[in-house]
Structures are given as C-alpha cells and as structure tokens.
Amino acid sequence: MSENRWTLPQQQAIEDTGGALLVSAAAGSGKTAVLVARAVRMITREEAPVDADRLLILTFTNAAAEELRGRMARELEKACLHRPADAYLRRQRLLLKRAFIGTIDAFCQQLVHEHFAVLDLPPDVMVGESALMQQLSAQALAETMEAMYQNPDFARFAALYGRTRSDKPAEDAILALYGFTRSLPRPEQALRHFADMYLQPLPLLESAWGRELLGQAQEGVASALKLTANAMDVIAGDEALAGYKPALEQDAQALAALQMALRGSSWDTMAQAANAFSGGKLKAVRGGDAARKNKVKELRGHIKDIIGNIKEKCFCCTELEYQADIQAAAPCVAALVQATQHYADRYMELKTEERSLDFSDFEHFALRLLQDENGGHSVLARQISQRYDAVMVDEYQDTNALQSALYECLARPDGS
C-alpha cells in the first residue's frame, strides 16, 4: 500500500467491513484515494481477500475510470514488491485488467447488449450521435405539438404558459418535464403522479408544496433567531449600545413566538402569524463603536429580508386560494403530462427505428432487466450481484434517482 497518512475517519472508511458504506466529505478531501485504498485492501488483506475481478467499481467518466484502474494497478505493484514470492498478488494484477471499472452508462450498455432479445431491441442498438438525437427529438416534438393542439386544454396551457405568439415556452415545458422524469426510475409512473397531485389535491399543509414552503419558513425563522443572537453579542460590553437591547429582545421574543406558531396544524393560522410579525423598533443611540452599530443594523437588515421573504414567498396564499389555483390548473397540467408522454413515446419509436439510444435509455432498459414488477431484485439482478463481492461508486453525490436504483439492484438484496 502507499505511504498515505490517513485521518482516523479515512482509515475507518478504508477498513470498514460492515456492508453498505457512504463516505461524505468535501471536494478535494481524498474520497477517491480512500476508495482506491479500500479496494486494494480488500484484495490484499490476509483474511477473506477478494479477487480483483469481483469488484464492480463505477464512476462518471471514462477518464476517471482509467485513473482508478491505474492507481489500483500501481498499488498492487507496490504490494508485489513487498511480497515478491506471492503468486496470489501476481494473479490479482492480471485479474485487475478484466475487472469492470467504468461508467454506469458503459455497464448498462453491456448489460442491454447481452439481453437485447428480452427487451425486444435490435442487437446492434448503440448510443446515437448527438446530431441524430437532436434531429429525432425535434421531429418527435413537432409531431407532439401538432397532435396536442387538438386538445383544448393543451392549447389553453400553451397560451397561458407562453404569453407569446411562439410555441417555444410550451415546447420547453415538455422537454423539461421529460428530462426530469427520465432521471427517475419509473418516468411514466412519475408523470401520472404529477397529474394526480392536481386532480386529487391534498390540503396545502399535507402537499409537497406546502411541506417545502413551511420547511423554508421554519429554516428562515431559525436563521433569524441566530442573527438576533449575533446582534446581542455585538452590543455586549458596550454600554453606549445598550439602547439597542430592548428592540433586539423584542425581536427575539417575536421570532420565538413565530417559531412556535409555525409548528401548528392550520396553514391559514400560520400564514396569519407570519404576516402579523412585527419586530422591535431600533432606537437611535449616541456614541458607541461605529463598526458595531453598523453591524447591528446589517444583521437586522438580514432579518427583515428573511421575514419579508417568508411573508411574500412562503405564505403567498390562503388554503382556499391554493385549492382554487390547483383546480384551475389541473386540466392544463393533465394536458402537459399527456403531451410529455406523447413526446416520450414518439421519441423512443424514432430512436428504436434508427437503432440509436441515449445514455438514459440504456439505464432505463438496464433497470427493466434488474427489477421485477414490484420494484424488487429480478432473477437476473440476483445472478449479477453474485458475481461481485463489492460494488463501489465514485462521485456518488452526482448520482440521480435512476442510477441509485441501479446500484441498489447490483448490491445483494440484504444490502451487503
């Protein structure tokens, strides 16, 4: 192994044998180096060593994959120098050459090509050239717009959403929704759920929007309380600034009361509390440190901005207004979902005819192979997971929901 001086958390990550492990650290902190060291340790340890080709190591670029393979090869070479008579280590250097160290896209392409018949795909399907993909996408989009304008709700959506004499805003909405759902394991199901959120709306406080907005409001109030405490610290010890204290104390009391109110069960009651918020009035003081005075005013300015944002953006409507908006938007949203599915279906038809898919397509077809109808591990997934003793993912923070589902299928059902 190399002469790296690992920190205690890094060493623990390298040596951990407890199953699933997530390493979270800042950029440039050595996460990839830890992954390499962990992989090499699994190969070279005396107790229950793992053959190099039984490691599945996935990353996001071919260059990163080659770098990982090269670093592991150098570490194994160093290990061989320390144990020159060890035939096992020499064999591992050979096995490393055939180990799968590559991108998730390359893995999915290989899997799809091995099982193309099950997926009803042509055997020579490949990743399409960018220019061809753009051409097919434009054709599918044009046909979708022509078909969907027969739907009055879609025409109304296009008119309301665009507010210009151009189809581009509506087209962009279709492409954006398509792109988002393609990052999810089950795009069609996600589209149906999106429409259902409008057709069968929950009370605002129980909805995804309400939970998100309330969470932002609660975080904002917590931040404002910290800023108020900071302001109190600024004036501490300066008698000339004691005149600021009553206003800051009133701020703290009002914010604490608002924080308590935002734990309630009625959206309108919480909205009323937020809109009724009023802090203390900062009195003018004579003397005192000018820098401190400016700091207090700056902090209170931040607090004012936070509360204003909560009033204007988090509690921007009542429960009745929300329900009315949802009801009015539901037909347009349903039409947008229908248009997006029409585009997705037609785009796939065109790509299949050209024997050309994009990376996302290969990932979705791979997931179809690896999951059963209930979302569990398929027979094939269980067979593949038995080929590997460990699945490692570099740059996991860049993983989307679809890729995460693939990784879960490649791991053993018990999570080991």
Keywords:
17 helices; three-stranded parallel sheet; 64% helix; mainly alpha
Concise structural overview:
The chain is mainly alpha-helical. It has helices at 8-15, 31-44, 62-82, 87-98, 104-114, 130-148, 152-162, 168-181, 187-199, 208-235, 245-261, 267-275, 290-314, 319-353, 359-370, 379-385, 401-410, and strands at 55-59, 100-103, 126-127, 356-357, 390-393.
Describe this structure in words.
Helices cover 64% and strands 4% of the residues. By secondary structure, the protein is mainly α. The strands form two sheets. The protein has a three-stranded parallel β-sheet. A two-stranded parallel sheet has the order 3-4. Helix 6 (130-148) crosses helix 14, helix 10 packs antiparallel against helix 13 (290-314) and helix 15 runs parallel beside helix 17. The longest helix has 35 residues, at 319-353. The protein is flat and about 80 Å long. The protein starts with 7 loop residues before the first helix and ends in a 6-residue tail after the last helix. The mean pLDDT is 92.
List the helices and strands and how they pair.
Layout (H helix, E strand, L loop, with lengths): L7 H8 L15 H14 L10 E5 L2 H21 L4 H12 L1 E4 H11 L11 E2 L2 H19 L3 H11 L5 H14 L5 H13 L8 H28 L9 H17 L5 H9 L14 H25 L4 H35 L2 E2 L1 H12 L8 H7 L4 E4 L7 H10 L6
Parallel strand pairs: 1-2, 1-5, 3-4
Helix pairs in contact: 1-2, 2-3, 3-4, 5-15, 6-14, 7-14, 8-14, 9-14, 10-11, 10-13, 15-17
Shape: flat
Structural class: mainly alpha
Helix content: 55-70%
Question: Residue-averaged pLDDT, rounded?
Answer: 92
SSE sequence, one letter per element? HHEHHEHEHHHHHHHHHEHHEH
